[in-house]
Amino acid sequence: MFTTTLGEAAQFAGRRFVRVALLPSLVFCSLLVLVAALAGEPTLNSLLRAWRSQPVEMKALLVGGFLSAVLLVAAFLDSTQFALLRWAEGYWGRIADRSLGRLGRRCHRLRLLRSADGAVHHLYPPRSRLHEVRPTRLGNILKAAELYPGLRYGIDAVLVWPRLFQVLPGGLAGALSTARAELSALLARAVLSCAFAVLGAGCVALRNGSTVLLLTCLWGGALSAWASYRGALNAAAVYGQHVRVAFDLHRMDLLEALGEERPRDPDAERDRWKRICLFWHRGIPLRHEAPPPENPRAAPDLPVAATGRGISLTQVSLAAALTAGLLGVLTPYV
Fold first, then answer.
1. How far apart are the C-alpha atoms of 305 and 154, rounded to whole Å?
2. What count of other Cβ atoms lies within 10 Å of the Cβ of residue 269?
3. φ/ψ of residue 90, rounded to 5
4. Among 9, 37, 137, 313, which is 20 to 30 Å from 180 by CA?
5. How far apart are CA 42 and CA 320, in angstroms?
6. DSSP-based helix, strand, coil % in the chain, nearest 5
7. What would the mean pLDDT of 51-58 be, rounded to a whole number?
8. Residue-wise pLDDT tens digits, 205-258
9. What is the reported pLDDT for 10?
10. H and E: helices and strands count for the chain
11. Residue 181, CB half-sphere, CA atoms under 13 Å: how many?
């Protein structure tokens, strides 16, 4: 049984690597080589004649270098999946967080305050948690799923999720893994599309290629990145719903696996999870007596929706792509 489980895990990991990293890297490198070749040759026929004229050793060397580049790009994507997801959620450095991060958070806070509760409950944190709003839409979707078990059951999702995942049934665990792989694959495509827009357009510009090819690389890569990111938003929403279902249906299974009794009512359950999370996080015994708060404070009033319209980071990115394309067209005439 253990050997079979290892074999299934290895097979799934192989399929996931091919889907998330290898195939996008192959398409990216192929398009980049094609653009670099077309930028120096006037027609496709002349490019084919130049390839046929090469000796066999040179062809083998070029093919080997191409395959090595594909594997290097795929290995890089596979090793940076977690960092890429964190970056897409809006966890940036201090400088970027104070500039672009502040702009993105302001835009999404305005959207949250002006929207109906039912329309955005799975896309944003609740209005009472405006400080939890992230500067990107993807970050807000995942943050809403992360806050859900804490608001409903008093569960710290960051602490409990790695343990809860081990007791999930095979169907739900497979759905979660599939949604997570789809999210990673779409983010990888978005990054490669941005890289193709920059590298392809730069290669065409350096080799004095045609303006049509330059704009195709720049705006085609930008459009592909935008479409991939929109698909990643849908994948993140599906993944967040699976996470909510896992906490709703199987949190009691984790309590049974820990040897804990089923709580009598929701208040007792919240207290039980709070004690367990404190034990896992800080080693505080489960049976400790917490002193009552001296000065309990009421929940703050919800802020009033501000007037004006915020500028999203997507609009900034599209404006940058259009400006770069126009500069590429006008540069030969300046």
1. 28
2. 19
3. 105, 15
4. 313
5. 29
6. 80, 0, 20
7. 81
8. 888 878 888 888 999 999 999 999 999 999 999 999 999 999 999 999 999 998
9. 40
10. 14, 0
11. 16
